[in-house]
Design a protein that fits this description.
It is a single chain. The chain has 154 residues and is α/β, with parallel strands linked by helices. Helices cover 44% and strands 21% of the residues. The chain folds into two domains: 1-29; 31-153, HUPs (Rossmann fold), CATH 3.40.50.620. It has helices at 3-17, 21-28, 43-57, 73-82, 95-105, 126-129, 132-136, and strands at residues 32-37, 60-65, 86-90, 109-114, 142-146, 149-153. A six-stranded mixed sheet has the order 3-2-1-4-5-6, with helices on both faces. It is globular. The protein starts with a helix and ends with a strand. 25% of the residues are buried.
């Protein structure tokens, strides 16, 4: 192990001991994909896409669950069988605001997978819908899985 890697590990340990677990994880590296689940039938397509891309690029999966957690049970079993590490975050409210918050906090997110652009303003107040400046600064590409088509906004 070289000295730079040793210093990175020690810094990550210090952050973890201080309760800054997200920062420690980021310092340890690894690619992550953020999957947004909304409790719709199209979540299955998005989930399948995210699972396959994680397998291909060797990424971990962050799941932003904007629906009932019971909907995840079968999917998490499949993730376990495939050997894909995952973490679930349960949130409610404005989808766009939650995505922005996570990607600003987590620099290790490679891209976001979501059903379609129409759902981004779901549960958003008028003020939250006007997040266009923050949305344009989204730190990673957004992959839209819609009607069997996959599009990307970079």
């Amino acid at each position: 192990m070289n000295m730079d890697r040793f210093e990175e590990l020690m810094s990550a340990i210090a952050f973890a001991e201080a309760g800054e677990h997200g920062t420690a994880r980021e310092m340890l590296g690894g690619k992550k994909v953020l999957l947004v689940l909304l409790g719709k039938e199209t979540d299955e397509r998005s989930s399948r896409y995210a699972l396959n891309i994680c397998k291909r690029i060797g990424a971990h999966l962050e799941i932003l669950c904007m629906t009932k957690m019971e909907a995840l049970k079968q999917f998490t079993v499949e993730l376990g069988k495939e050997g894909i590490r995952y973490q679930v975050t349960k949130k409610g409210g404005c989808v766009k605001k939650e995505i922005i918050g996570i990607t600003e906090e987590r620099k290790d997110i490679q891209f976001v997978v979501i059903e379609s652009s129409e759902v981004l303003d779901a549960q958003c107040s008028k003020e939250d819908r006007a997040l266009s400046a923050a949305w344009e600064r989204l730190k990673c590409p957004l992959v839209l899985v819609s009607k069997g088509e996959i599009t990307s906004t970079a």
